[in-house]
Please model this.
Amino acid sequence: MTSATVLNLKEQMHRVGASTADYSLTSDLFPLRHFNTAQRETGTALHGKRERASVSRMMSITRFYIWYFLSMGLGLACVVCVCLWNSQWRGGFAWDGSSLQFNWHPVLMVTGMLVLYGNGAVLYRVPLTWGENKLPWKLLHAALMLLALMLSVIGLCAVFGNHNASNIPNLYSLHSWIGIITAILFATQWAAGVAVFLLPCSPGSLRKLLKPQHVWMGGSLLTLGIAACISGINEKLFFVLKGNTNGSLSYSQLPAEALLGNSLGVLIIAFGLVVLKILSNHEWQRPENQPEDVPYTPLLQEENQ
Amino acid sequence: MTSATVLNLKEQMHRVGASTADYSLTSDLFPLRHFNTAQRETGTALHGKRERASVSRMMSITRFYIWYFLSMGLGLACVVCVCLWNSQWRGGFAWDGSSLQFNWHPVLMVTGMLVLYGNGAVLYRVPLTWGENKLPWKLLHAALMLLALMLSVIGLCAVFGNHNASNIPNLYSLHSWIGIITAILFATQWAAGVAVFLLPCSPGSLRKLLKPQHVWMGGSLLTLGIAACISGINEKLFFVLKGNTNGSLSYSQLPAEALLGNSLGVLIIAFGLVVLKILSNHEWQRPENQPEDVPYTPLLQEENQ
Model:
């Protein structure tokens, strides 16, 4: 049994309400500080408690993975829908200032600022990542968020390029205001995250102070991203589905493209709410601190701030 | 010192991480079960811990009220903005099927489904409500949510009436899909909330099981409400600010009405995020259970499920 496995076991037992007596299970590695309590337990009662704790832990992990795979399925459905919409109904993609360049905008914002972002946000909730060494997962979290940010920036460049080439003013609609605020806050959050939680010179007290703000801002950015996506899809469908004499239907007549666009919006909402559900459930949070039995080791080896 | 005051003090000391030894402060009312631990503390160290716990508690409550009053200020600003927009720029209100009837829609949805709803959601976070008897606050929570739901339903009637009188199809845009889903889920959440958490016949085990879902759905409804409001304001501004030869400006030229509408959208986002911040901070949550020292009393007298 590795040290990391024992740590996980101990933390998860604590989460599911296991008695301190249950910790004697790991007595080969951890001091049995609650021996007096354990002494009072009969062997049968102790066994029953262990069984219950184990079942409860398994159920919690199973529930997590159901929600996690649901979020992945919904995220995949969002990406498929937005690609299908822009490739099949909006004429595909180009980078020439035309409306085909614009088509990159919804695809990259939904893929980057929403789906990839959401997946990066819930990374620490995956029990598999709860070992002693948080650093590789922290680097993966930062990398996923950087990729999401880069896709979002390219998505913004797509719309600015198309607007400039077509003499359409930038940043006047509420959708664009919310979108640009989200992108600026996302970039700020990423830079602050690297500076505070990755750079070795950042003090532990600062990390502890700013972690709740980082987590809250993370959830808020997802809410902002949802609002930006929904208003953007709504606006786009009104722009392009005007109906005319050659038989094309208007938005209000709900042609197939309208149904696809609206369904994409509903999927985005569903994805966002599932991710926010995973983020808000404290039972699934990575433990705040390593158990006190394990000595703290400095950054770049093992750390948990 | 009333029993409720002592309860609050004990719960809040626990939240701010006070040692069990600190509970001896309330030894006149609660058994000193941790006497052995307390014995090991010197008088000075104990006094220092109490001081720190008291300061920490005060700071936590102060932080709560800063965010709470910020949410109230932002909520008020949202209501003022949406009323000003529809009364001064959109021609005021009527109930005759005209566009003046439509004007009730944004006012009632923002006031009901967003601001009143948000205020009802954070009610249990106000430390003032943390006494032994939860029932009056539960009734106020249900009443605020019912009022929010009624305003939302009247707001929906306003838009359906206007659409029907003007032969405009209903429920085709993504905004309307998100809005109607939000309203249906809100009504379901209210009815389920009353059935599970207010009716005396509802078992405690069911309440315990469904409380996390009720809380999660509450936050999700706020996110849905934000997305519906943002997409609705964005859509309305595109509809009405088309610009024409008599000198009125289009949305892209950012006239005063566009600035007001966009600002309303930003205020709605800010209000929503502040409310979600308050809801997500576990430090400000009403304690899950009354301390075990206090006997549980049945529903309609004192209860805390």
